[in-house]
Amino acid sequence: FMFQRRLYTSYHKLIKVNYFSTNNNFIRLTRNLSIMSSQQNHKLCMIPGPVEFHEDVLTSMSTKATSHVSPSFIPVFGESIELLRKVFVTEQGQPIVVSGSGTLGWDMVASNLIEPGEDALVLNSGYFGDSFAACLKVYGAKVTEVKSEIGDRPTLQEISDALSTKSFKLITITHVDTSTGVLSDVKAISELVKKQSPNTLIIVDGVCSVGSEEIRVDEWNLDVVLTASQKALGVPPGLSILIVSERAIQTFKDRKSPIPSYYASWAHWLPIMNAYESRKGMYFATPPVQLIYALNTSLKQITSTPLETRFEQHKKVSDQIKSVVESLGLQFVPKSREVAANGMTAVYYPEGIQPADLLQKVASHNVVIAGGLHRAIATKYFRIGHMGISVTEPERKHIDNTITALTTSLKELGYSGN
C-alpha cells in the first residue's frame, strides 16, 4: 500500500510538471494514474488462467488505432513469430498466431491433419482430453482413448498397448490438464511413439503448460504444440498459438479430402505467417493488433532469461505451495507429486468446508482461486494457478499472499488441519 501511495504521489507530481507542456502528456499521465488507481482494488487472479499480467504487457496494448498492415506493426508481428520459436525451443517449427482461444488449436489440428475415417489416439487425463476427443470426432476421426483414473495419467505400457492395435494418424497428449492439474511426461511418450509408431504425428495440448513446464519441440520430435495467450505466456485472452513441424505441414499438404473449415485452414494462415515474418503485410482475417503488441512484450520478457531458469522457478514455487497444502492435511487431486503440474495445484476441499464458502472467504482476502472443472468431481475440489509473473517476480508477493489467504480462510471457516 505504501509503495502504491508513493507511486501515486510521483505520478501526481509528474502531471503537475507536464501540465503546461502538451495536452498529450497530460492526457497520457492522467490515464496512467487512472489505471493505477483502478488496480488498487484489484483482487489477485490466482486461477489456472487467465493469470496476472505484467504492467508493461498491459501498457503495450494501449496503442492508438493501428492498421494490421501498418509499417509500425508488421515488424512487431514478425518478431513475435521469431520469439515464439525460442519459447518453444524449435528452429524449424512454424508458429501460427490467430485470433481465438486455445480451443481453436484443437480445430486447427483436427481440420488440417485428420481426414474422415482416420484413426486418432487420445491420451485422456481429464476434462480437456474428453474435449479434444470430441473435437476430433466432429471432423470424422475414429477416436481411441486411453483413459486414466481421475488424478492420474495413462502409463507408458497402456499407451504402448493401444499403439499396437492399429496404425494411428496422430496421438494427442494433454501436457497439463487444467481440470485435474495432472502433468503428462511428453518426452517419454514421444520417445515411445517414435520407436513403436514412427509415422504417427505427435500433438501436444500445451495450453496450461507452455511457459511453465519444460517443452522442447525439436528435441522431443513434436509435430504440433498448441497453446493460448492467457496462461504462462502472460498475455490477456484472445490468441490461439501453435507450433507446427515440417512433417505436419507436409501431411497437411498431402491430404486427399478438402479441409472442412474456412477460418481454421492452414492454407490461409501459413502464407500470412510467412509474410509477416518476412516483414511484409498480408491479409486473410484481421489479427488482434493490440494483443500481438502485448505478446511481443511478454515474449521479450520471457526470453530475457534462460528458459531453464524459468522452469526451475515454476517448479520451486509449485513445491512451496504443495508443501503448504500437505502441511494443512489437504489432499491433492493428482495421485502424487510426480504427476502434478508445476503451474497449478488442484486440491480437494476438506470435510465440512463448502466450495462457495472457501472461494468467497479467500476472495475476501483479495485473492481469487478457482473451483473444480472436471465433471465427475467439480464440487469436490478447488484449483490454484501459479504461473508467469506471480512466480518469476517474487517481490510482488503474489504467492505469499495466496498462501496466507488460503490458510487464513480455512482457519476462519473452522478448519484446524492435522
Automatic annotation (TrEMBL):
<dbReference type="Pfam" id="PF00266">
    <property type="entry name" value="Aminotran_5"/>
</dbReference>
<dbReference type="InterPro" id="IPR015424">
    <property type="entry name" value="PyrdxlP-dep_Trfase"/>
</dbReference>
<feature type="modified residue" description="N6-(pyridoxal phosphate)lysine">
    <location>
        <position position="231"/>
    </location>
</feature>
<feature type="domain" description="Aminotransferase class V">
    <location>
        <begin position="64"/>
        <end position="384"/>
    </location>
</feature>
<dbReference type="InterPro" id="IPR015422">
    <property type="entry name" value="PyrdxlP-dep_Trfase_small"/>
</dbReference>
<dbReference type="InterPro" id="IPR024169">
    <property type="entry name" value="SP_NH2Trfase/AEP_transaminase"/>
</dbReference>
<keyword id="KW-0032">Aminotransferase</keyword>
<dbReference type="GO" id="GO:0005777">
    <property type="term" value="C:peroxisome"/>
</dbReference>
<dbReference type="InterPro" id="IPR020578">
    <property type="entry name" value="Aminotrans_V_PyrdxlP_BS"/>
</dbReference>
<dbReference type="InterPro" id="IPR015421">
    <property type="entry name" value="PyrdxlP-dep_Trfase_major"/>
</dbReference>
<feature type="binding site">
    <location>
        <position position="383"/>
    </location>
    <ligand>
        <name>substrate</name>
    </ligand>
</feature>
<keyword id="KW-0663">Pyridoxal phosphate</keyword>
<dbReference type="InterPro" id="IPR000192">
    <property type="entry name" value="Aminotrans_V_dom"/>
</dbReference>
<protein>
    <recommendedName>
        <fullName>alanine--glyoxylate transaminase</fullName>
        <ecNumber>2.6.1.44</ecNumber>
    </recommendedName>
</protein>
<keyword id="KW-0808">Transferase</keyword>
<dbReference type="GO" id="GO:0008453">
    <property type="term" value="F:alanine-glyoxylate transaminase activity"/>
</dbReference>
<dbReference type="GO" id="GO:0004760">
    <property type="term" value="F:L-serine-pyruvate transaminase activity"/>
</dbReference>
<dbReference type="GO" id="GO:0019265">
    <property type="term" value="P:glycine biosynthetic process, by transamination of glyoxylate"/>
</dbReference>
<comment type="similarity">
    <text>Belongs to the class-V pyridoxal-phosphate-dependent aminotransferase family.</text>
</comment>
